[in-house]
Amino acid sequence: GAAAAPLPEEDCMKLNPSFVGIALSSLLAIDLWASKRLGVCAAEGSAWGSARPLMKVIEVSGHGIPWLLGTFYGLCQSDSSAAREVLLNLLFALLLDLVMVAVVKGLVKRPRPTHNKMDMFVTISVDKYSFPSGHATRAALVCRFVLRHLVLAVPLRVLVVLWALIVSISRVMLGRHNMTDVLFGLLLGYALYGVVEHCWLSPATAPALFALW
């Protein structure tokens, strides 16, 4: 009889998956499973549904709008050149964070977990995507910034770190994100702080900006 036609290349790939492909698929499956199990505040009827209002307050504390408005207000009210320099760089850090998270979300386009309830505080178009967690990115960035540039007593420094961790954990508990979204967000925020330090704005490097204040 006639020889069998060769399988299309894509079918061969499916029949002979690479080790890397299998590993990534397995990790993704574990991530989705564990994230769903940890989404204990994803709805009122969830295991910890009664804690959902508290988790949503924590969600707002890590949202970009309160941080941007608070930083801008402090910048306008400050009468110290040193404080204005710190606040202007914090504003730059927050804007950089928003842009980078939006770009990565738009490129990756990972959907939010299926158990997420879309009642988030002030969202934009890319917020329908999940990767990375903007709250986790912002928490890591602000945490590093505050610990580096504000003189705080040890208990307050501990509270800042705890706040960043709680904000990040709350994203999975609320069902907003998968664990990998949060972990990558923390790493991205940590790295973005290095960019802010490298591009630090000062009267010497950005005189036009400081002239506005």
UniProtKB/TrEMBL annotation:
Task: Give me the segments passing through the membrane.
Answer: 87-108, 150-170, 190-212
| Membrane disposition | Multi-pass membrane protein
Subcellular location(s): the record lists: Endoplasmic reticulum membrane; Nucleus inner membrane
Catalyzed reactions = (2E,6E)-farnesyl phosphate + H2O = (2E,6E)-farnesol + phosphate; (2E)-geranyl diphosphate + H2O = (2E)-geranyl phosphate + phosphate + H(+); 1,2-dihexadecanoyl-sn-glycero-3-phosphate + H2O = 1,2-dihexadecanoyl-sn-glycerol + phosphate; (2E,6E,10E)-geranylgeranyl diphosphate + H2O = (2E,6E,10E)-geranylgeranyl phosphate + phosphate + H(+)
Which branch of life, at top level? Eukaryota
Q: Which EC number(s) are documented for this chain?
A: 3.6.1.68
Keywords, sorted A to Z: Endoplasmic reticulum, Hydrolase, Lipid metabolism, Membrane, Nucleus, Transmembrane, Transmembrane helix
GO biological process assignments: lipid metabolic process
- Gene3D superfamilies in the record: Phosphatidic acid phosphatase type 2/haloperoxidase
Where does the record place the Phosphatidic acid phosphatase type 2/haloperoxidase domain? 86-197
Q: Which GO terms describe its molecular function?
A: sphingosine-1-phosphate phosphatase activity
InterPro entries tied to this protein: PAP2/HPO, PAP2/HPO_sf
| A GO CC term assigned to this protein in UniProt | endoplasmic reticulum membrane
Tell me which Pfam families the record gives.
PAP2
Q: Which family does it belong to?
A: Belongs to the PA-phosphatase related phosphoesterase family.
Q: What is this protein called?
A: Polyisoprenoid diphosphate/phosphate phosphohydrolase PLPP6
The gene for this chain is Plpp6
